[in-house]
Amino acid sequence: MGGSLADSRGHPDEAERRLTETPNSSPPHATQGADGELRLPRPPGVIRLFWARHLRTADILIASIYAFPEAVARIVTYVDGSLSPVLNTFALLLGAVTTVALYKRRSAPMTALIITLAVTALFIWNSSSMGPIALTIALYSVAVHHSVRAAWIGLGATAVAVALAGLATAGIATDPADADVISTIIGGLFAVLIGINIGNRKRYIGALVDRAGQLARERDQQAQLAAASERSRIAREMHDIVAHSLSVMIRLADGAEAMVEKDPDASLAAIRNVGSTGRASLAEMRRLLGILRDEENEIAERAPQPTLDELPQLVESYRATGLPATLTVTGVPPVGQGAQVTIYRAVQEALTNALRYASQPSRVDVVLECADGAVTVTVTDDGKAGETPVSEGTGRGLVGMAERAALYGGTVTSGPMSGGGWRVHMTMPETGENP
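-> structure tokens emitted (435 positions)
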């Protein structure tokens, strides 16, 4: 009658109490109406809610089911003298101990069973003893609050103990003990069967409540991870749009200022490039912020992500700032949009770093190779870093580049070259598919 779920340990009463905390709570089983709508069962009634919220009151009442008749029996035997004062006092003390054990039956069901079994076996010869009532309650409590296996073992021990006690005290029994032995075993059997049924239900509800709590925690964790991932994605986009474009605009503005008197036409062209770069950045910023907005009946205008077809235009925008950048493409570039965005952003980041940190480079080479099932992007410059003050970076550029490449199974390495200059190298599968 029990499986792994039925034999699980825990505190099912606490789980059921949590399940009945609010009037809208209900058992886990749902039904489907004739109209196909999912309907929950009726919530617990007033009586069940009361007992679920007042467990100690219920324990006192259940212990009183034994304590009150036992106290009356001890008074009767004391008055009529059917039991000696010593035995009567001893039985009264054992009754008090048994009452306490029954009160603690939820937290210590096995202890309650051992005490009540001992008391019942000691006084099985006396028909006025209420030990069988206590033993029945204890067996029920073991089945509900401990486990199915312990309940069956307890019932077997009860049958053996009371049978042996009945045989041992047959000579001193005031009444034949056979009927008390049989009724005690039968009462214990019914208590175990009922307790297993109720205990399995409590354990099942407890497992459902624990599972629901676990799912809720996992949902919250997934939401936090998703939010962190989204923040990281937005940070990468913001870095690509703002930091890179501003670096180009600053360099163009500095060049225009330097040439305003010597070459007004070149200065004017640089200023125009500043305006076009700013407008392009503003459009990308609006697109990104539009995706984040969630306003009624408003759909943000979403421009497509950059592709490899725009790489020449990107390199040319850096050449306009005075950076001697060249682009070389060999093989057939990947067609996947995600891979193209990753490659584009990697080139953009590498060129921006060269613009900001390389000191008077004579060559900045951008090489895109697609061969042997892999795509490699290499950006090198021969500038000498550290000779001129460099702008303050956030440190997110190369990290974001590596994160983008990792999404498609790629890797990014960067560092100084032996003959001077800097090298950024990215490798990713040619398919450019998210693994």
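The two ends are 47 Å apart (CA to CA).
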